[in-house]
Amino acid sequence: MDTKYNYFEFYTDLSNWFSRHPRLIGALRLFNRVVVAIMYLAYFGALVAIGWEHRASLPALAKAVAPLVIIPGLGFVVLTIARNRLNAPRPYEEWMIDPLIPREKQGDSLPSRHVFSATVISLVAWQVAWPVGLTLLVLTVLLAVARVIGGVHYPRDVIAGALCGLVCGSLLWLF
């Protein structure tokens, strides 16, 4: 059986189930936005916490914070270039599906930049307080699932985004 046909069936069944429970569509969309906001606030909070810890000396502050800005920033740029070159279509481009998370962007689906960023931010937060980092990693997994359920990414897109985020985030421990 054709796996793409199975994906269409899977997504149609899933979206029909959500259509029978319209409040869940709103909850999915809200969850997507809230987790993205939490991630950005957590990243800013982690930088502030590390900055506060190293506030006594400017060189110590720069040494502590710079890798947490440079490594994720370079990773984001490299990921963006790679996904622009790949220009993989999104599920709603290949199939006659109505995504539960409204999106009009074409291409640039693989890897998921949302999941990449959330993974890296989780690992930055892990350096400040591992329970916070672990909580954010759980939210990252839920965000990945929401992006697939929402119809804006295939599972391969979010898995690739998470793996790229883990590679980029692991570089933080070298510095």
From TrEMBL:
Residues 65-173 form the Phosphatidic acid phosphatase type 2/haloperoxidase domain. It comes from the Bacteria. Keywords: Membrane, Transmembrane, Transmembrane helix. The chain crosses the membrane at residues 30-52, 64-82, 115-146, 158-174. Coiled coil: none annotated. Pfam families: PAP2 (PF01569). PANTHER family: AT30094P (PTHR14969:SF13), SPHINGOSINE-1-PHOSPHATE PHOSPHOHYDROLASE (PTHR14969). It comes from Limosilactobacillus panis. InterPro entries: PAP2/HPO. This is Phosphatase PAP2 family protein. CDD domains: PAP2_like.
